[in-house]
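Figure 2 data, in text form.
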Amino acid sequence: MSNHERAIYAILGGVLSQNIFNLKPAVLLTWEDHLWAHYKLLMSYKTDQILEFMKDHMNLDVEAPEPEDYSPMDETQIFSLLKTQFPFQSGTLQGQVSIYRHIQEQIILGEIDRVFNDIRTKFLPDKEPIDITDEELGRFGPGILRFYAHLVLFFHPNGFSNLDDLDELSETKQDIILFYWMHLFRSCSHYNNSKIELITSYSSKLSTEQQIRYHSEFFQRVQTEEERRACIRVATEWEMDLPNITYDTVMSTLDRPVKATKDVREAEEADLERIRVVEWYHLSNQTQRAVQQVCALASQFIQEKKVDAARTLYVRYEFSNDLQFPIMGRYDSIRNFLKCSKSYQDIILPKNGREVSVEELNQVKEDLYSILFDQNFLAAVQDENEEDRLQLQQHCVPQLYFYLHFVLFKLENFDECLQLLIKLEEEDIRYFQAEEREQMLEKTRRTYFEIAKDPRYRWIIED
């Protein structure tokens, strides 16, 4: 009979003893073999003790086992012995095997919290998951990171999205999940439905705060409308905090410093990225937020003297006047300013080099008058920063005055030019910077010069 057969019969016959460790050649070769044998001995020994107790104290008709001269080790002693027989090894494969054994030991001993503390402090980098580099991630196989994450979710299947699920080690456990999340996030160059589902399924297990922080990082990388629609649909299905995730996505994108560049195409692409990010609100039916963000971004473009970018923004996100949001007044004001700006450009640079008709000039004049002197133009909006509103007025109002003066001058309506300049001085001079005031002063001189030449306006000179 071979040693393996002897070991099998000994186990099946319930006569397992210390002798199994001394069989030659050895039949217990691995860490798992030794662990199983030690625990089999320990279980048999405890079973014998229970039977002995039942016979002596409960008057039960049971047959007590024959007494043995062997007392098995307790659990702590078992693992101490195994550590001497199978020391912890470094290296990728050997190291992972040792880690699995260490975790198995702590779980068997009931030290679950220690398992997660050890994973976080001994086996993962000492930094926030979001700060890990690709090189550092590459040192871990996806298998071991997935094992760590699934170990947390085995003990916390509902994750940490509810307050009732949080405990003292919640942050530690979420970090363990997030290192695997970062692997999924960094390893994707494009996102199909299955990848979006996978990443979102792990994000949904995080606390609300971590969902917002990390899933917005994921949203920022998604660029196409189709992918964004899929992300919104899946996040909704997983009952994630979509309004705050999209808000963090939009603001994080817009808060990035605008890179100074002389490359026109590069600058235009940077502007388009800022325009496209508003799509998160638009696609998720957060219409009021979308309108507010369009107004804020258009104001920023106008102040950066990027009127074409602001116009592109308005073309992409057009909202009905039927909406009853307080911000709609601002939305209409900016739209009207952009319309006047476009009309002015068409006058200066008419298509195909044709002459601009008097009728066209008069139409532009009427539009400018109706907007510039509308008391609701750039009116205050609830909860608006007054300084932000003033900055927008300081750019828009002078431009409209310049546009209107140009049109009036081209129509040779010099008396209206003069009245316009007088109104400016009386009511709106506060919106003009020193350089702009000097420009308007020069226009006033030119207006007086033209009036002096034209006999139609002699009455003005005489007055």
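Caption note: Residues 31-57 form the longest helix (27 residues).
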